[in-house]
Amino acid sequence: MNRVYIFDTTLRDGEQSPGVSLNIQEKLEIAGQLAKLGVDVIEAGFPIASPGDFEAVAAIAQKIKGPTIAALARINEKDIDRAWEALRYAEKPRIHTFIATSDIHMKYKLKKTREQVLAAIDKGIRYAKQFTSDIEFSPEDGSRTDIDFMLKVVETAINAGATVINIPDTVGYATPKEFGEFIRAIKTGVPNMDKAILSVHCHNDLGMAVANSLAAVENGAEQIECAVNGIGERAGNTALEEVVMALLTRKDYYGREVSINTEEIYRTSRLVSSLTGMPVQYNKAIVGKNAFAHESGIHQDGVLKERTTYEIMDPAKLGIIQNNIVLGKHSGRHAFRQRLEELGFELTEEELVKAFIRFKNLADRKKEITDKDLEAIVEDETRALPEKYVFDSLHLFSGSRVVPTATIGLKIGDEVVEEAACGDGPVDAVFKAIDKISQLGVSLSYYNLNAITGGKDAMGEVTVKVDFEGKTYLGRGLSTDIIEASAKAYINAINKVEYELSR
Ligand code: KIV
Ligand code: ZN
């Protein structure tokens, strides 16, 4: 009764964020991390949407154990069949089906009357029920649905067999008090509401998704749908880390339980940010770079004397890696392995050997290696796909009065292929030289450079997105030399395109 279930939709609504496109390995990696985090439900995708979505849901359903695996379907037989086909081998499958119920959506989008929508709900849920007992139903644009009609909708859905009723604030229009009252009206006004779990799914268009979700919990909601780092359609969804930490930190107020392994929060946030290419804003609650940074002298003094003077959460309990100097040029493999274990990384022997070589190379260029550096190296090393092109060498001729020219060497099997190109800047020249080798004709749609730590010798992390045949591919590259990091990121994205073409 006291429990709030955490339903994660990072891989479905989150993946609908503009510019985000995850491949199947990346989705599996995120799903595995979500299972470690301990979410109750993973919404793995929308199988009818594309063959890629279908394949990813099927792979997650087969491989990820622990959480319930949900798949989205519109309320029609074709969608539901496809969702079930993808889900059928899951340990705990859930079909999540939806149809819009607000007057505006029914009139303009569906061109259906209220009676027709009620009939579709009844028919669709009964149809889905033959496959699995766990059926979630969402009345889309729920918060803008007439309350008397909503009570009928929910009663009909539960009568047909829905076990979870999820009320979406699809367009992020609701305010906390109003949404709380709406949820209370459903909780108390639907005669068979005790036969289903009441859930909410809030969007952040007015920046109120977390507040609306918490107001719903105060008024009887038992499940929150959310996404890591708050990603999702438009301004995103309720941020998982924020609602979870609000419920835990203010348990004295909310009095509810969540079953989340908080020490995995930071790593999950990093993983989602790096695989989606969506940076986390510095001042983002819980996982932002500044969330535990104290700038004012008074605050720093307070925290040094007693952490709780200015910190309401312990960053260590969120798995936040502090930026302490841990290793250097003379550190051996034993110390390296031990520190990685302390940081919670589980590496195979082969991955460890590769990461250690990277670490030694980095130590030649950077005097002090921090936990954040180690984290970046390991993430980079363990996320490698089969690579057609391997970075070999880079020569650059650049300056304020010359046309930048790059010569790049890429290993293809045992052979090294070299090409040179001029560009508008050094990065452009490098990318053009790589294009000459790959001959794919990709187009660059995004470029971001981020320093992993402070200092002149900091590692630069470059994220690029390239578009190819209607799909977006993300690449990451890491180096103390930012042009080399750019080259590696671009090669990484091109390798992903090649991998997709080879399947
Ligand atoms: O925002 C929304 O209405 C949705 C539903 C499909 C739950 O994402
Ligand atoms: Zn949504």
Question: Top keywords for this entry?
Answer:
binds 3-methyl-2-oxobutanoic acid; 16 strands; eight-stranded parallel beta barrel; TIM Barrel; Double Stranded RNA Binding Domain; three-stranded antiparallel sheet; globular; alpha/beta; binds zinc ion; 3 domains; 17 helices; 503 residues
Q: What is shown here, in short?
A:
The chain starts with a strand and ends with a helix. It has three domains: 5-276, TIM Barrel (Alpha-Beta Barrel); 333-382, no CATH class; 390-502, Double Stranded RNA Binding Domain (2-Layer Sandwich). The protein is an alpha/beta fold.
Could you characterize the architecture of this molecule?
This protein is 41% helix and 20% strand. The protein has 503 residues and is an alpha/beta fold. The protein has three domains: 5-276, Alpha-Beta Barrel (TIM Barrel), CATH 3.20.20; 333-382, no CATH class; 390-502, Alpha-isopropylmalate synthase LeuA, regulatory domain (Double Stranded RNA Binding Domain, 2-Layer Sandwich), CATH 3.30.160. An eight-stranded parallel β-barrel has the order 1-2-3-4-5-6-7-8, surrounded by eight helices. It has a three-stranded antiparallel sheet with strand order 11-12-13. It has a three-stranded antiparallel sheet with strand order 14-15-16. A hairpin with an 8-residue loop joins strand 14 (443-451) and strand 15 (460-468). Helix 14 packs across helix 15. The longest helix has 21 residues, at 482-502. The radius of gyration is 25 Å and the shape is globular. The chain starts with a strand and ends with a helix. The mean pLDDT is 94.
